[in-house]
Amino acid sequence: MAKILMKGNEAVGEAAIRAGCRFFFGYPITPQSELPEYMSLHLPKVGGVYLQAESEIAAINMVYGAAGCGARVMTGSSSPGIALKQEGISYMAGAELPCVIVNMMRGGPGLGSIQPAQSDYFQSTRGGGDGDYRLLVYAPASVQEMVDYVQIAFDKADKYRNPVLVVGDGVIGQMMEPVEFVSKPAENLPEKDWATTGTGGKREPNIINSLYLDAEKLERHNIHLSKKYSYMQENEQRWEATGLEGAELVIVAYGTTARIARSAMDNLNKKGWKIGLLRPITLWPFPEKGFQLLDETTKHLLVVEMSMGQMIDDVRIVNEGKRKIHFTGRSGGVIPSTSLIEEKILEILERSE
Amino acid sequence: MNSERTILAGFGGQGVMLMGQLLTQAGMFEGKEVSFLPSYGPEMRGGTANCGVIIQTEPISSPVVEGNATSEIIMNLPSLLKFEKDLIPGGKLLINSSLIERKASRSDIEVYYIPSSDIANELGNTRVSNMVMLGAFIEVTGAVDSENVFHALEERLGEEKAHLMEINRDAFERGMECARKQRTNG
Predict the structure, then answer these.
(1) Do A267 and A219 belong together in one domain?
(2) Which of A2, A24, A239, A330 could form a disulfide with A336 if both were Cys (CB 3.0 to 4.6 A apart)?
């Protein structure tokens, strides 16, 4: 199929529909409103349902309902809207319901700004909701990668019976790039024999629930969930590594920021520096296996984020004190420039010479 | 590396985003790597619109055009004041001189003054001012082939508005001609 030029938000919608998503519940917010707009136009054409809820809280609970019936369902929002959805997300993790949630991040806290940001890293990976739960979190860096990972997200959600979060930012949501929709064979997924589809008088009712009044029962459930998360940690880490061999310094950045970092890296490498880039694609599980590939020559890690520094905590954890960790970034909706990153790298390397 | 990094900026309604999208799509038709990044922030609510387009042979890392623009299409004065600094030395600046009386302040860039609104009015539709500018832009940069811009526009207009192709083509060619003259004089 030929490539078509699409806006990130619209491409996410098309990818979801092609992945079999038939329900979308949401509430508009900049910079992701083109996603519900696209769904409202195209879902009815394939027999699906688009519904604009009265609030983000209502929307995520509609997602809970549809997911409980075994449907492929999605919601999307941007930072403060995702904050409102946290209770529902925690309930879905507890009830083990698959769904895909898209967050096109904007500046925060609070209502913040409408400009691109990455300041929901904690919210995404630490859980804004209550309880011992984890989400699988993908952070694509281009419109094409968004398309690819939305399909993967639906499959993984079904595979693990867990909500999957796909995070972008205002840049990826709003920009246009050529995309190609290549349908990949789905993973061999289990039947949704747990879904509430009507017993037909032939089986015991299925119950979708996250309430366990018996403490020991809940603990058993927590242990079950924890095993699932450990399995995901072992099997679902994804990252992209560039120029690690012989690198003096490796930049760690994800999403849009990784692309800007890559430009900075290329500029400096042309001048004879040895800079690498490690781009987490899964924010949770954090790709610690990628960090095991770092070269002995690498003395410095530079974390770059569109925030005041959140992912840097995970880099500190996997680094185990081995290398010096530095940070630069912009926040509030300001996009870091390549020159900001280049200057920071030169400052680090020239100081350590 | 062959890379055209363009900032297009003006008032909302001047067709700035459309220009950027046609350019991007034409680049895609030619099998090049392309990206289109629009402003969508609070400044848009105030009535200004801008976007950054990259067309090149190698994969695009940062889609942000800031401080490294090889060319600019500037449709109003606030945009000239804001973006002139983002051109690299030797960069090409196209100014809609119908609406902007001021001259460019830099001497290390190539400047073209295109009275695009006047030309569009002569053609009978002020709305094709953007196509005049786009024609001039293609003339001086050769970023993409004109026919691919028309192809992109045809797709965009669809059958319903296909009758608008002619005036858009005329506008485009008038823009090319205007830029060509300034080139030979300069």
Answers:
(1) no
(2) A330
Q: How many domains does chain B have?
A: 1
The reported pLDDT for the residue numbered A70 is 97
At A300-350, the pLDDT tens digits run: 999 999 999 999 999 999 999 999 999 999 999 999 999 999 999 999 999
Same domain, A198 and A279: no
**Mutation for A interface: B28, B32, B40, most A CBs within 10 A:** B40
Query: Which residues in chain A are contacts of B24 at CB distance < 8 A?
Result: 5, 176
Whichever domain contains A216, its CATH number is 3.40.50.970
Indicate whether A9 and A65 sit together in one domain. Answer: yes
Contact B61 A260 (CB under 8 A): yes
Rounded to the nearest angstrom, the minimum Cα separation between A265 and chain B is 10
Residue among A170, A164, A162 at smallest CA distance from A137: A164
Judge: B36–A31 Cβ closer than 8 Å, yes or no. no
Where among A177, A211, A235 does a domain terminate? A235
Single-letter residue type at A269? N
When CB atoms are compared, the residue of B24, B38, B61 closest to A259 is B61
What chain A residue is nearest to B36 in terms of C-alpha separation? A176
In chain A, % of residues over pLDDT 90: 95
**Same-domain status, A16 and A143:** yes
Which alpha helices (H) appear in A108-203, and where do they start and end? 121-122, 143-160, 170-174
What is the domain extent for residue A317?
Answer: 240-352
Domain that holds residue B94: 3-185
**Residue A316 and residue A289 share a domain:** yes
* CA-based nearest distance A92→chain B, Å: 33
3-class SS string, B24-60: HHHHHHCCCEEEEEECCCHHHHCCEEEEEEEEECCCC
Chain B hits for A263, Cβ within 8 Å: 61-62
Nearest-angstrom CA–CA distance, A7 and A27: 19
Number of domains in chain A: 2
- Give tens-digit pLDDT for A150-208: 999 999 999 999 999 999 999 999 999 999 998 777 778 999 999 999 999 999 999 99
CATH number for the domain spanning B10: value is 3.40.920.10
CB contact under 8 Å between B38 and A31, yes or no, is: no
Q: Which residue of A has its CA nearest to B61?
A: A259
Q: Are residues A174 and A107 in the same domain?
A: yes
Contacts of B62 in chain A (CB under 8 A): 259-260, 262-263, 338
Residue B38 has pLDDT above 70, yes or no: yes
Strand order in the sheet with A4-7: A4-7, A176-179, B33-38, B48-56, B3-11, B69-74, B87-96, B110-114
